[in-house]
User: Fold this.
Amino acid sequence: MSLIAEDIRVSYGKHEALRGVSLTALPGEVTAIVGPNGSGKSTLLGAITASLPYRGTVSLNGQDICGMKPWQLAAQRAVLPQASRLAFPFTVIEVVRLGLQSGTAGDRPEVPMQALARVGLAHYADRTFQELSGGEAQRVMLARVLAQVWAPVENGQPRWLLLDEPVSSLDIAHQLQVMDIARGFARAGGGVIAVMHDLNLTALYADRVALLATGKRMAFGRPQEVLTDEILSDAYGCALRVSAPPPAGIPFVLPHAASA
Amino acid sequence: MRHWPSKIAFRTGLCAALCSTFLAMAVSAEQSADTPQAQADVLSIGGSVTEIIAALGQEHRLKARDTTSSYPPSVADLPDVGYMRALSPEGVLSVGPSLILTEEGAGPPEALDVIRAANVALVEVPDALSVAGILRKIEIVGETLGVPEHAAGLMAEVEADLVAALADAERPEDDKKRVLFVLSTQGGKINASGTGTAADALIRMAGGVNAVSDYEGYKQITDEAVGLAAPDVILMMDRGGDHGLADDELFAMPAVQLTPAAQTRSIVRMDGLLMLGFGPRTAQAVQMLNDALYAKGT
Amino acid sequence: MTVVSDIAVAPRDQLNHARALHWVLAVALGLACLVNLQVGATDVTLSSVLAKLAQGETLSQIERVVLFDIRLPRLAMGILVGAALAVSGAAMQGLFRNPLADPGIVGVGAGAGLGAILAIVLGALLPVWMIDRAGNHLVPFAAFLGGWGSTILLYRVSTRHGRTSVATMLLAGIALGALAGALSGILVYIADDRQLRDLTFWGLGSLAGASWAKVLSAAPLILLSLGTAMMLGRGLNGLALGEATAAHIGINVQRMKSVAILAVAGATGAAVAVSGGIGFIGIVVPHLLRLASGPDHRTLLLNSALLGATLLILADVIARVVIAPAELPIGIVTAVLGAPVFLWILLKRRGLVEL
Assistant:
């Protein structure tokens, strides 16, 4: 009951964006995908969500996603895209309800409001989506995704949240709020895969980290194993130093300590 | 004009056919024709048909007309049921006609079907581009309205006028002027008449030569083709307004500049219905055009 | 976090609002039908005919023809065409994620126009037995085939590896429209004078040629297409989030798009075929409804059918009484009424909606 991607290859024309990347994400954990710009992070998530053509295999809870219908996939995993543009002036609550359509909570009309409350925007239910700031829009989309897989475990099977840079346009407080929600989902038995830009948040919330560079997986493991001086410096092409203050034992990245 | 001799025989045959077809109507119409205050119950569609009805002295029987019916001017007061090719069936029925006389080509067909379904007699008068055709139109209208004796009188009159006008207009082939009929100059493009049109027929009757004989009907032609056609005179419909200005504009068009007509500023404008209607006034149109073409020239 | 009090605030329910609107619009359509049957160039009225029937009197021939052969088929055609145009517009806008999209844009209208012009200009060249069979249905049928064919061609051009790119489709629609326009231009050139006048009046759009035969020829295709379109609501809602996200929430996007295109082509082709080019219904009706009750396609599609039919048959009343006994082509009425509304919508929504 995990999400396993094996030897994933994706090409854009002649350019090979992913050159055989494997990844295993376990329920109960937050798995972060990190790496420099253009390393293939979002491409890997695209393959895992079946959004783009890929070679290799992706299996979700033991089933190859290749043979699954859209509604079967939708019942098992929800996807938060990087940026969401909405074509028509739907209200916030209507957007969240869209997540219910094929999700597992379809017969529970209270779920959308609860999901909105979870991201702290219940009082925005009647606003038009287009009126929202970028950060608010991103949280509404998270609520939509949560509504789709409201119960982290259903029929003994974990549900999955696949998040593409979920905190990219959020302030620090909401970054923490969203990551708390993701971790809460994992702790309740669900699985979370998140493409992350911020190495500190990754260190803070990820249980497992996959580090990509130039379409290959450079490292995979616990944050302490992956977020090291030499691995990061190698991947990002600049000398980085990771500090781990003794009390919490959690590593953090100090850009101030960077030297070209 | 060579087929005149067959006219009489044709007329007799037609007469018989019409008499049997419209017997009932003719009988009822005969009664109303006798009384000048007869109820107006005829809808006339098509400018030439309306003209013929008026020329037969039956204008009082007209209840309504279509947009193309503009002569005599007094018919303008009648209700207008719209353009003859886009009739509204209910609009037509609303004027309460018991007889509809129409030129060929009224429509749409669905509208005519419904009108027939309402038991309104509908008589189509065939188009004509010849003397025989004009006389036939008069004959059919006369029979249908139950005034064959009026029709016979009008036909004799119209035929005499036309024969005289044609004889008067006749001239040696190499002495004929080349005439270009311009339907419109929209967007700087000349829309000119080819063969087989009313304009073509009238030009030939009036002793001219149609400058364009490469195609049938009205079409836009290129500037160079206008030059090649080399018209001596340009013929247009009179749409009112300032002709001096319109002429300047016309002769300034690159297409027209090259033509002999532009050198002599030769342009003739005539009323569209008079010129192209092929009704009772066609002799007048032939004469007018012939005068305009040759009175000052040569 | 004040979670509890947040939840206590029940969201304003646009969906119920829109469902209530179904009933309002249905009643409005009923009233519009009555007005449509009551008013016309003749002094025959629905009320007088009903009164006569109630007293067991027989109707005059004029009354029967006007009511049953003129106004009723025309009303039926107005309802079908109005509903078809409005629903096609709503579905196309949902499909293209663009509130300005219209079947006219993706070439269905241009293709239908080409078919009609072909039939008018070249129809005379057909063997006599074919002309006899086709009769008055030749032009409508050719218009429908043209719309259908151009949609399928468009779909082929813009679909690669089972995926339709909306951008390619829009561009291909423009190219196809231009091509159809050019071919039509050539045909207009070789058309004779009388054919040209037929073309002009066909292009303006009119319900004047309504007959039971026409209604019956268009009704099956329009009803089938409308019924299909009514099932697209959920999919079009999802598509508002983009194709990828729509797939993520469980929508079979490719199949949904194919079905939507077929439904739109069927409804528009058949409608344009029997009534010519009637504009603005497809754009204005869905816009007004989104203003009134939100963009949820599950209700928008049915409401569009009701409001489209209502507006078109009211426009038809205007078309036939303004200059009675003559009548205006209804396309002129919808353009005169629709274009300002459309501009007003643009001004009002500018900035709020990505166009």
Notes: The beta strands of chain C are 159-160, 163-164. Residues 204 and 331 of chain C are 5 Å apart (CA to CA).
